[in-house]
Amino acid sequence: MSLSQDFEGKVAIVTGAARGIGATISNSLIARGAVVAAADLLPAQSWENQLAAPNSKHFVDVRSRQSCLDLVQSVISEHGRIDYLVNNAGIVRRAKASEVAEKDFTDVIDINLNGTFFMSQAVYAELKKTKGAIVNIGSTSGHSAVHNTVGYSVSKAGVMFMAKVLAFEWAADGIRVNAVGPTIVPSDMTAPLLTNDVYMKDKISSIPLGRMATQQDVADSVLFLLSDAAGMVTGQTIFIDGGVTIH
Questions:
Q1: Which of 29, 57, 67, 188 would you call most buried, defined as having the most Cβ atoms within 10 angstroms of its Cβ?
Q2: pLDDT over 70 for what percent of the chain?
Q3: Alpha helix (H) residue ranges in the chain
């Protein structure tokens, strides 16, 4: 089997797929033979990511269990099966823990943590049929405490631990569930930080390999965890962090 055909005949849902890491994951899956049902809250005309048929664009608001169920039914109607779910949809709101606004905190939890669960729950029955796999996008912020990101850090710790819980419960159904935990990655979400020279100098100095992770670094690890090469890997988080979590 050639590398470009690793996922031929498989169908993947990727949330938060309109841009950034989600778009890179989607394009990487497509390049290796998968059909991708890309989903986002953003209207399709505003997406940076353009998808050729038979791939498809879908609306989803992961804060709503019903919206997640509707997405699953739409994908089944269009593609007939679901093999993979990548829970990538997420936001960040930065503020001191003593000052963070209620809405900023609850929005992050609703999208990052609750949304990951609702989407996983919605796709469970279909993945049970195909013996499929889920990958959650976590963060090193969910492993090591970071200033001014209490909601984000707690939510990412949650989605990484959720991978363990779901992997344990759903192993008997043949469903594998894992997570990846990137360090800082250039994206719209991190753009305000990338121009802060003091922050970036300190951040890069904390990464033993001395550089940020790229979106492709994250996508490559997601594809590994979805692939048959990771057939005995479940309930794990792979940190894409250049060694940040070594110490």
A1: 29
A2: 98
A3: 20-31, 65-79, 102-108, 115-130, 150-170, 191-194, 197-205, 215-226
120-158 pLDDT, tens per residue?
Answer: 999 999 999 999 999 999 999 999 998 999 999 999 999
- CATH of residue 64's domain is 3.40.50.720
Q: What are the residue numbers of the active site?
A: 152
Residue 206 counted as domain residue:
no
- Provide φ and ψ at 192, rounded to 5°: -60, -25
User: Which residue range is the domain that position 141 belongs to?
Assistant: 3-187+214-240
Q: How far apart are CA 103 and CA 100, in angstroms?
A: 9
Reading the block at residue 39, the tokens are 């989903």
Amino acid at 91: I
Within-domain flag for 18: yes
Distance between CA atoms of 186 and 191, rounded to whole angstroms? 7
Q: How many CA atoms lie within 13 A of 138 on its CB side?
A: 30
Are 7 and 227 a contacting pair, CB within 8 Å?
A: yes
Q: How many domains does the chain have?
A: 1
Strand order from edge to edge, sheet including 237-240: 56-59, 35-40, 11-15, 84-87, 133-137, 176-182, 237-240
